[in-house]
Every structure is written in structure tokens, then in C-alpha cells.
Design goal:
Helices cover about 10% and strands about 45% of the residues. By secondary structure, the protein is mainly beta. The strands form 2 sheets. It has a 7-stranded antiparallel beta sheet with strand order 4-3-7-1-2-6-5. Strands 11-10-9-8-13-12 form a 6-stranded mixed beta sheet. It is elongated and about 70 Å long.
Length: about 180
């Protein structure tokens, strides 16, 4: 299946090596928890831009990662061919989230607006667009990069704290309103 035929695919992990001699592979999951990876089941591997279905007939937690057995792969030599491949799933297999919660991919690309306190909060200014997010442990951080129409060309790091710094998210309108300050140069 080619990229165009696949629809939107999400990378949920990467095969990092082999585990033992009976065809098991090590997987570094990109999900919040290893159990999150196990919940998908509609796995595919991306090899040179082409998706191929894969069936893990056993997936076990091993330290901070996972080890899995690929059906019909029963030796280390064959398992070695999977090293470095990304494990992907169709985006439509993600479970729906409760109201007010978002997947990171939904936030990427949103315009970020804030009140301009210098103008007594009467005017909103565009800070930029969410480029990506960083997981810091305490809270996630939005990396907001300048875009056409933004107030300046600066990159900003804004804590993603709904109800605090993040006042409103509107996926339909493609924007996020934040309680942040406009830096003066």
C-alpha cells in the first residue's frame, strides 16, 4: 500500500533490534505508556515508503520498552530484517478523547493568539503557529514559530497548561488563545 492509498498514518513506535534467537524484536514505543502501544492491533511497518501489514502475536513489556514476536518469524536472522522500521497505525484507530483533551497532532499547525497587554487587552496579536510539542515531565511545552502575519519572527516556548496559559482551543477555526506576554525588544 502506498502513502497515498494509506490515508493518514501515525508512527507509534520503532523496531530497534532483536531480542533472543526465536524471532522476537525490541520496540521503542512512542505512546505515553507501553500498554497504549499494545491497544492498537492494526499495526503496519513502513519500509522504503511502503506500508506492509504485520501481526505481532505476542507483545510484552520489557523495562521501558516492548518486545514482540512477529507471526511466522521464528529466527533471529529473519527478525534482523525488521530492525529500524517504524511501526505505524491508521490515524482513525486512535480512540476519541474526552471534551477539552487533544492529541498533539491536532494542536500542530494551530495559530496562537494572545491579548496585547500594551494596548490594554483590546487587541489580539498572532504569535505564530504551533510547530511541535516537547514533553518535559512537569507539563508539555508548545514550540510556537513565527508565520505570515505574526507579530515578529521569534520562536516562543509556551507551557501547554489548559485553563492557565492555554485559554481556548478551537480546532474548527484552527486557533489557540493563550495568556502570554508579547516580548518587547
Amino acid at each position: 500500500m502506498s502513502d497515498a492509498q494509506a490515508g493518514e498514518m501515525l508512527v507509534v513506535g520503532k523496531i530497534t533490534g532483536c531480542f533472543g534467537i526465536k524471532g522476537w524484536v525490541k520496540i521503542h514505543p512512542y505512546t505515553e505508556t507501553p500498554e497504549g502501544f499494545k491497544a492498537f492491533g492494526a499495526w503496519q511497518l513502513k519500509r522504503r515508503g511502503v506500508y506492509e501489514a504485520v501481526e505481532f502475536d505476542a507483545v510484552n513489556t520489557q523495562g521501558k520498552g516492548l518486545v514482540a514476536h512477529i507471526r511466522s518469524v521464528d529466527d533471529r536472522t529473519t527478525a534482523e530484517q525488521y530492525r529500524g522500521l517504524e511501526v505505524v497505525v491508521p490515524a482513525n484507530t486512535l480512540p476519541p478523547l474526552p471534551q477539552g483533551e487533544y492529541y498533539w497532532r491536532d494542536l500542530q499547525g494551530l495559530q496562537v493568539w494572545c491579548q496585547d497587554e500594551a494596548k490594554k487587552g483590546e487587541e489580539k496579536v498572532l504569535l505564530g503557529r504551533v510547530d511541535y510539542l516537547i514533553e518535559t515531565g512537569a507539563n508539555d511545552v508548545l514550540v510556537v514559530k513565527a508565520c505570515e502575519g505574526s507579530i515578529d519572527k521569534r520562536e516562543r516556548l509556551i507551557p501547554y497548561m489548559p485553563g492557565d496559559t492555554v485559554q481556548r482551543v478551537d480546532l474548527e477555526e484552527g486557533l489557540m488563545e493563550v495568556d502570554w506576554f508579547v516580548d518587547e525588544e
